[in-house]
Design goal:
Length: 439
Amino acid sequence: DANKSLLFLSFKPFKNSLSFLTSGNVIENQKHFSGIESKFSLRIPEKPDEDLCHLVPGQETSVADCSFNHTSKTFVVIHGWTVIGMFESWVPKLVKALYNREPDSNVIVVNWLARSSLHYTTAAHFTKEVGKDIAAFFDWMEEQFGYSLDKVHLLGYSLGAHVAGIAGSLTNTKINRITGLDPAGPLFEYAEASRRLSPDDAVFVDVLHTYIRGSPDRSIGIQQPVGHIDIYPNGGSFQPGCNVAQALRLIAEKGFQESDQLLKCSHERSILLFIDSLLYEEKPIIAYRCNSKETFERGLCLSCRKNRCNNLGYEVKRVGSKKSNKMYLKTRAHAPYKVFHYQVKIHFFGKRNITKRNEPFLISFYGTKKESENIPFVMPEISTNKTSSFLVCTEVDIGELLMVKLQWEKESFFSLRWWSTPEFTVRVVRIKAGETQKK
């Protein structure tokens, strides 16, 4: 009787533990998984916000009971640090979007809420344990059912991105893909690769960085590249629409429970951009390889030659290079987030050498489909007899470019007075469309 009591205690975390007392091998199997605290909920498209069925490592019947599809790919959604100790509203949105794109797939939500709602430092420490849980689960799925890890795609947000990385580093066979959604920065920016997400953790690792403001050790999102492709929308530091006025309006409408939206807005934009890539297949968001945010802002990186541009999100094209590709793009403030990128080069001519700084302009594009008028931009520096380059984005697809209108906002140095010739003349305007690569 004493021995039986001990057995029952060790089986407590699992359902139907009595049925596993028939074989010594199965008892050993259950003991092997007794330390796993993370829960694996197989969600369904009809109820993406409910945990109706759990896959339990070591319990074969749970896989059949939850109707796991052994021939389809599996998406694994891993949440991050949470103050409220509950799933956040983005989880069912992502689950629904994944099923919308891949109806026959399995979408598993990993629940590590009990550990992730502790103090941040403690929760960050537990990423290793949760990563171990996920690795043990998929090693068991592969060994027990022959389920290929080539069908597995982990999607980790914030701390969850590092959980995904640790899981990928521990599985017996390499997981196919990990997507890091603004991986957490504090305690990970300077951590060795084994403790955080890195390119070695899966066959392919793609990362979105959307909130990397401040010094590296205090940035909410990790600043360094940690994947095969690292995409920095809007430079990665701040996302359009995530301003103080908008947060205050949310608080006024919905109360103080929305007060964390300002902090979360840019951080969670990584998830919303990935959801966008699932829902708007016909409008892929394009990112461009570039050495720096500043170079991109000058429109100097809108090339698609030799894999220099790529799709953001689900339909990203894999690249084989060992060195991380840093990529940049602009988005608008709300879904669908896609904008169209143009490089504008203007050669100013004049008889005297003149330089002016921070000059405000308006530019208008007229095309075969639509027009985009009076787009404001500031030219950091313009000089006579030099070419200035800058980036302009439109929210609408104008089609083939037919005409450009350029307007200098201040007093016009182009104006011809009867006693003088103009100080500046525009000699050449060159425009390149990033999305079509046409010049």
